[in-house]
Amino acid sequence: MEWRDEALVLGVRRHGESSVIAELMTREHGRHLGMVRSGRSRAMQPVLQPGNSVDATWRARIEEHLGLYALEAMRLRTSDLMASSQALHGVGLVCALLRLLPEREPHVALYEMARLIVDRLHEAGIAPALMVRLEMAMLVELGFGLDLNECASTGAKDDLVYVSPKSGRAVSRIAGEPWRDRLLPLPDFLTADDPEAPVERDSVLAGFRLTGYFLERDLFAARGVPMPDSRAAYLACL
Predict the structure, then answer these.
(1) What share of the chain is helix, strand, coil (3-state, %, to 5)?
(2) What is the CATH number of the domain that holds 41?
């Protein structure tokens, strides 16, 4: 068995004296692990930093085996990420989110979103809103997507400003007014067409509150694990 793919490095763990197990988010093969021989060498350590892009060749005798990775650097982002605490915590959050995906299951759209975000983490006016969109996409891909197309109560498609914490469906301003204290605010940038338009800080934070509620309830708590520390650190930077 052999394939070649582009990938983002999510992390590594030690394996034996000099090797590591690399966890990659590949474009066509999803989140995929493999052993890198001499992965702890001076030549490979800079390549195997979270957020870097690599050209990965995976080989194994049969598909079920862990397999071996041969990696070549494509884009090393570590120095750019280290220059900003927001970017550093941001790449940690991206990696933590992608680790929720089942292993070896392709998610091409998520890979492309993650690659776009790690390239733009230093752009403080754009990256946070993109991160919220990534969290929304994670919920969709794992079967817990929010329905923001129409009001859950009236079917109206305009003036949607709330989300029901029970159903994850949008609620219009008029229908939700009597229960506004029990509903989650829906920032308008999440229903806008331009994903890279500037977004005000309060709207971004409202977006994180919205996605955070469903991420914690449906993904992290359901697995018995806490929300990643990198998320709280990233929000603190905002």
Answers:
(1) 40, 25, 35
(2) 2.40.50.140
Shared-domain flag, residues 50 and 100: no
How far is C-alpha 146 from the chain's CA centre? 16
130 and 64 within one domain:
no
Same domain, 31 and 102: no
Q: What's this model's pTM, rounded to 2 decimal places?
A: 0.94
Exposure string (b/e) for 127-164, b if CB count within 10 Å is 16 or more?
Answer: bbbbbbbbbbbbbebbeeebeeebbbeeebeeebbbbb
**Do 110 and 220 belong together in one domain?**
yes
Range of the domain at 226: 80-148+186-237
Count of residues for the chain? 238
pLDDT above 90 covers a percentage of the chain that reads: 91
Distances (CA, A) of 209 to 191, 206, 213, 215, 231: 16, 5, 6, 10, 11
How many structural domains comprise the chain?
Answer: 2
User: How far is the C-alpha of 178 from the C-alpha of 80, rounded, in Å?
Assistant: 48
- Placement of tokens 């474009």 in the chain: 27
Is residue 230 over pLDDT 90? yes
How do residues 71-80 score in pLDDT, each as one tens digit? 999 999 998 8
CB count, 10 Å around CB of 16? Answer: 11
| Secondary structure of 218-238 as H, E, C letters | HHHHHHCCCCCHHHHHHHHHC
CA atoms within 13 A on the CB side of 225: 11
194 pLDDT higher than 90: no
What is d(CA 45, CA 18) in angstroms, rounded to the nearest whole number? 11
Query: Do 91 and 191 sit in the same domain of this protein?
Result: yes
Same domain, 132 and 43: no
